[in-house]
Design a protein that fits this description.
alpha+beta, 2 domains, four-stranded antiparallel β-sheet
């Protein structure tokens, strides 16, 4: 099997649903174009997400392929279509009503609002890893695992946890190529309280974090840099990808260390 890019997902509004793409440009700072470009903020300028507001999980977002429009819907709240440039005021008003609290939207076209500011490139996981994690949890399927962990890039043609090759000791990066673009893996991503929550309802799957951590410890591959695991609630790989010029990632691109 040959490693290749099997999927691209961006999240135009941080904490809401993904947009699946066949190709996406890397911005000069390293983020995927359009990824987490908008963020919902509360009165104290804190992010509004599934960690702090379970109602976020009940909002469905469906984007145009150009990521310039979104249709939002939620239980007991009428669906509505918005332009993601011209209608930000109306969009914030709709979100405020759906979540029952004042929401304002922040926008960053240059780098978005990544979870890890030090490693702001796309997050990476393999299809086989997603399928392996789904086997640990008979209650959920592989698509639910994708939605819970929200990785940007999915690698096919590799065994489970192949992506653990993409980081080394603390303070180092591991260079790898996707097509013509070079990225650097930095660390296994520390997970937050969101993955235990059902992506549609916010209901918490009891014992998720412990079961995941136990199985991750048991299945950690020999090629993983064990010193990066102060705990085993880590999954997917954070990256950096600064650079200039046209850099477009496409599904099917070969991947090589």
């Amino acid at each position: 099997m040959t490693p290749a890019l099997a999927g691209i997902r961006i999240f135009p509004i941080k904490a809401l649903d993904a947009l699946v793409l066949d190709e996406c440009a890397l911005l000069p700072g390293g983020a995927l174009a359009g990824d987490r470009r908008l963020a919902m903020l509360d009165r104290e300028a804190h992010y509004v997400n599934g960690k702090r507001h379970p109602g976020v999980h009940r909002i469905r977002a469906r984007y145009s392929k150009a990521a310039d429009r979104v249709t939002l819907s939620a239980p007991d709240h009428p669906a509505r279509d918005f332009a993601l440039d011209a209608d930000l005021g109306a969009l914030a008003e709709w979100l405020s009503g759906a979540l029952g609290q004042p929401i304002r939207l922040a926008c960053d076209d240059e780098g978005g609002f990544p979870d890890d500011r030090k490693a702001s490139g796309p997050t990476v996981v393999s299809t086989a890893s997603i399928e392996e994690v789904a086997r640990w949890f008979p209650e959920i399927d592989a698509q639910s695992v994708r939605r819970r962990f929200r990785a940007n890039l999915e690698i096919g043609g590799v065994p489970p946890f192949w992506e653990d090759r993409l980081y080394g000791p603390a303070g180092t990066t591991v260079a790898f190529r996707i097509g013509a673009a070079t990225l650097g893996g930095t660390n296994p991503c520390q997970r937050c309280p969101v993955p235990p929550r059902d992506p549609d309802t916010g209901e918490i799957l009891s014992g998720f974090q412990k079961r995941f951590s136990d199985r991750r410890r048991e299945t950690l591959p020999a090629w993983a840099e064990a010193s990066r695991f102060d705990h085993f609630y880590r999954f997917t790989v954070n990256t950096v990808a600064p650079g200039q010029g046209e850099r477009v990632l496409r599904v099917g691109d070969p991947i090589a260390l």
